[in-house]
Amino acid sequence: MKNILLNFCLSLLVVGYASAAENKKPNFVFILMDDMGWTDLSCYGSKFYQSPNIDKLASQGMKFTEAYAACPVCSPTRASILTGKYPARLHLTDFIPGRKILPDQKLLRPEFNLELPLEEITLAEALKSAGYVSGQFGKWHLGKKGFEPEQQGFDVGFAANASGGLPNSDEPGKGEYEITEATLKFIEQNREKPFFAYVAYNTPHIPLAAPKKLVEKYEKQINPALTHTNAVYAAMIESADTQIGRILTKLDELKLDKNTVVIFTSDNGGLHVREWKREVKATRNDPLRAGKGYLYEGGIREPLIVRWPGVVKQGVLCTSVMTSVDYFPTLLEIAGVKIAGGIEGDVASINRRRRT
To answer: Quick check: is 74 catalytic?
Structure first.
């Protein structure tokens, strides 16, 4: 229990682990956004984007102010989350397949793996030894044929169409409805078992796309004086927030909420430049510098929310530093799985770096 309390600032915040009496391992729902910046939620300061369900999640758990991605682009961070190792250790240091070599670039890009090596132990594989069933839903981006989620320990793999439409809409979304539907089915089918649902939305990655009615709603609310002014981006945030709300509601309906650790975060900072020919930047990470693709704060600082009823007090703010490699050992500690050597994430390091 002492090691668990080191996770997620719990050394100061534990109010009792309600599920311990039932001797039932907690479930995990890990929600990963794609290119969501640190201030892209109303609970993180945005005056334009609306995220009521995620805001509620923050009020029910712990919100981190200094959570970091292991890399300013997606594939390396995703690999670090699933393995507890830094991208350099995995030789996976750029998004897959990476940019082409440009004629005017001054430095060569290092060679890197175009998939997560099969010999690496993932969260899904490690949790399987403790009786967990695991499902991956949405964006994978860690390898194609032969390196899909099913080859990396997941019992279920569902890759939604990133241009998939939303119900009752004449505009495409980013597959968020399909991803959520598959996640809800997985939770229903595995409600009696300990499960790990890795839910990786494509939102708000470019190309920007959202339901027309939502876009029109935000177009009427644009205020040039605000940091955020992109109506399409705002609509994408709300659309994803609605689907995340459905997952949280399902946990409540099945009475799984009290025994489920919900983690919400992103893979890198928000895109702070204009998307192709659009006049408005995708988003802005102010007051942080730069964004996706840069090692400045705007490129790597992430929103992070953790809800664990009966363990984490509600509405708590945590200033401890957390990074992508720390999820692997933390979840395994909570699940009671012994951690093998070679893991670079360290649950104890969270406590050592804690600032009062």
So the answer is: yes
